[in-house]
Amino acid sequence: MTRAALLVLADGRFPAGGHAHSGGAEAAVKAGRITGASGLESFCRGRLHTAGLVSAGLAAAAALGMDPAELDAAADARTPSPALRGVARRLGRQLMRAARVTWPSAELDALARQFPKGAHQPVVLGVAARAAGLGAEDAAYCSVYEGVSGPATATVRLLSLDPFDATGVVARLAPEMDLVVGRAVEAARRAVHDGVDVLPAASAPLLEIGAEGHAGWAVRLFAS
Amino acid sequence: MHLDHTHPHTHDGPAALSADAHRPDGRRRALRIGLGGPVGSGKTATVAALCRALRDELSLAVVTNDIYTREDAEFLLREAVLPPERITAVETGACPHTAIRDDISANLEAVEELEDEVGPLDLILVESGGDNLTATFSKGLVDAQIFVIDVAGGDDIPRKGGPGVTTADLLVINKTDLAPYVGSDLARMAADAKAQRAELPVVLQSLRGEGGVTAVAQWVRERLAAWTA
Ligand SMILES: Nc1nc2c(ncn2[C@@H]2O[C@H](COP(=O)(O)OP(=O)(O)O)[C@@H](O)[C@H]2O)c(=O)[nH]1
Ligand SMILES: [Mg+2]
To answer: Are B15 and B179 in contact (CB under 8 A)?
Structure first.
């Protein structure tokens, strides 16, 4: 693996559509659950240990070469909100496009052919990591990092939060990101033998409910 | 043939990637023209007028990039300039210039979906969410771009230049009917624009006036003729 490839894939500027999404932060801001840096930290921590862990597990499993179709079904089963399932597929499709140009690979082409409307984003992320010569741990790191940095960046725009404070939040969560990556990768390695059912299935009901409400707003800054 | 020679794996890929001139089925895709410029300069009004002028001779569709609503898409729907399935709104996450330049994923998806669902199309107009004078479209998204400014935004804008004014394939100075009321000097705007743009064309128009969008529509027809040649 090359460490530089990991940076390319993890970079928030990697053009895969994420900039238009807040990871649930816009709904949480509107509901008054994020009003500043400490609220953002709680939000990101909750997200990391629930949706973040689930996504990282799926990404790691895909990077280990598990069947993407099976993983996509497992992602569906772990995402109760239809709005979030739609978002995950749309982001998956956008990542697929960017990854296919960046790291041309037969596996990515096959995935695009199998899921013309997009597979769940973490599944595509895992396959993209493989194409970039990266491993399961790398894929899990990309997943948890964007799951935290996305809402942090969005909150800077939503609340005019001091960008240094927002970055501090992300940095303080780094040790917990390590932990979550460790758990995700361990589960993914077990899943290779025991099947997708042993992948993490934590859930964050407020994220799911918030996403359903957000999808119906007439005026919003972010697509999700 | 495929424009993207450097990516052999994607040659037989299941879906088009970005600027490929051909669709996966081998047909030439629609010409994509971007309309950028500051908020309120008349981009949506120009798109609406272009649709009315061209819809009987061309198969066309529109992608709007609203900043935080679906206003532009809804205006076009209300005005019934095209059937609803030919108008798509893209959400830009508070960053309209990112969606047309730095990360064009959502817009590419929108143009391809339009071609898949209502195609074949000759022309897709992509309206930007409205931004500052530096916002331009990526060549990976559009084949040509129109930058729309207006006389009410200040007659020194052409002189100030910037990537939109200087490099757009067509500069439109809109709302010339308002010039007397806002004290804008049209001759000076035209001369400054010419100085910034050398050979690149400039159109002064009023959508409230007689000529309306005629000159811009003619420019679009010429681009299309060159695209399909
Ligand atoms: N007087 C005048 N008003 C115009 C003209 N073109 C557009 N407008 C008006 O300017 C306002 C903003 O136009 P719009 O197309 O929504 O701007 P956009 O933000 O660039 O899309 C609307 O009220 C239009 O009706 C024009 O040529 N003359
Ligand atoms: Mg508009």
So the answer is: no
